[in-house]
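Quick one:
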Amino acid sequence: MKSLFWILIILPVVLQAQTMDEKLYGYRHFQFLYKGDTVNMLVKSKEGEERKRKPVLLFCQGSLPVPLMILYNEGGRKEVGNVFVFNSDLLTEKYHLAIIGKPGIPLQADRQVLSDNFTFKDSTGYFPRFYTAHNLLDYYVERNKEVIRFLRQQSWVSEEGLVIAGHSEGSTIAAKVAVETKAVSALIYSGGNPMGRIMTIIERNRALEKDSTDLTTGDMNYWQEVVNDPGGMDASNGDTHKATYQFSIPPLQYLEKLKIPVLVSYGSKDAVAPFDEYLRVEMIRQKKQNFSFLVYPGTEHNYFPVKADGTIDYDIFNWDKVAGDWKNWLLQLKKSK
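Output:
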């Protein structure tokens, strides 16, 4: 958290890089122009091994416009919170870790200017229009494919293969990129719903229902509106119809096409758990040997334990355990080759 990072500026399309040798927070910073979007990418490497040839693990963010770097004022000095949700040291021994920012969202922001859930809003109090206009599955997939092409041209990137991982919304992005990019050698699908976003919305509301309360009628009506206008770009009530429609296409159709190793991880108390367990049952039925599953009993969407009364125990942080299990799975893949 107290280390520094190198900034590199990458010109659009031709992807030529210029090194500025400025260091901040232990990350190398790459910046592109892609379809009018200033794309920020951070790369975390083991200290002193930034130029050592290693494979890349590209991590796809979850939903919402959260800056990659959140700055905290500690004793008059600014420090950056974890860019990755887990301790990156768990994976940098074998990989360069890469993560790409959200469209129209600054690379870094002070904590005090962000909402309670760390999201960035503009002066009107809403998510920036540029973000909502580009917050689409197809946009993220095409953008990430271009970034992967750039990464594969770098001298410090090994040709051993490229791992793509994603959590929540990022899992859907990662799954579709894996289907469309031959360079991807393994997929980590975390906290995703193989039946799509609308099913997660419905399942979460089902869990809140009482005997006489049906909370999903509104969800079904909303879904009908989305299907009636799948290209709608009005974001006044949250996600655009186009975003909901694209992310609700069941990622199962991407996953079942994959022949590369796939690791599915999820908490058993997450709304997506029944659908990930359906995926596991279905992969067994199809006799697909390239899928592995890790379930974390009693934990929710971000792997925090759920107490007996249904509240979440935020004092127990399991993300490092999860990332450690990912590391062990990746090591086993290398040994099996």
